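During the no-cost extension, the postdoctoral fellow (Dr. R.K.) reprocessed legacy sequence entries with the updated structure-token encoder. One reprocessed record is reproduced below for audit purposes.
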Amino acid sequence: MTLNAIAAARQTTWRAPPSSAWVLALLAGLLLLGGCKSNDAQGRLTRLTPEALYERATKSLKNSDYQDAIRVYEALTARYPFTDQARQSRLDLIYAYYKNREKESALDAAETFIRENPAHPRVDYAWYLKGLVDFERTPNALERWMRVDLSQRPPVTARASFQAFRTVVERYPKSAYAADARRRMIYLRNRLANYELQVARYYIQRQAWVAAAQRAAQSIEQYDGAPSTREALEIMIRCYRQLGYAELVANSERVYRENFPEETGVIAPKHKWWKPWSRG
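Re-encoded structure tokens follow.
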């Protein structure tokens, strides 16, 4: 093959890379096409009736397509805000946000619904969902295997969740969600009480006896009935002895004997109707 033939072959097979301007133009076209499709889809939503929109959103929610459910629910509440479907959509939207891990949106939607619809027949559901959003999980399989103690972690949102569930149990005792809310309250109560004891132990290590006694007493006062009550009383007795408070030591020991007699086991604290796990 001659040199001229080789040069000609190279010219026919080699292609210059696309210029940056050409690439940018291609990307712009794709974005424009995507935007057109999105606008077209949104336009189709605006042409649907409230019933059709709600049916579509509910179908997406049941199929776990939470992003699409959120999009359609939001379109429904924006276009038909005063319909029955829109009112129900505001509740369903809280759940969709929650399942889609959009915590802030779920909390904002729940608080808005509760504020604007205090007498709504399903406001208990909004309170329940509010509690679920802030509910702290139990240890997963790996954490259980490694014996991770979650009580040592600050309960950042546990208190808010506890109060939301408590609202369901106290204000709406016949609610379909009251039983589950009560069970979650038990877990959160024990979780919060354990954390207070973690703090009390920390103060004991530093011989901050007053602070340790205060945290132990706070654990008993706020989370009565928790399994950690016995240790909290023991911490109080120890701290009062270190401080030389004989009267407080005697009172704490009396309470300890009354609640934890060796011959009968643990005596439950005073009964509260919304805490059936305690006894009168």
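The two ends are 106 Å apart (CA to CA). Confidence is low (pLDDT under 50) at residues 36-40, 263-271. The remaining legacy entries will be reprocessed before the final report is submitted.
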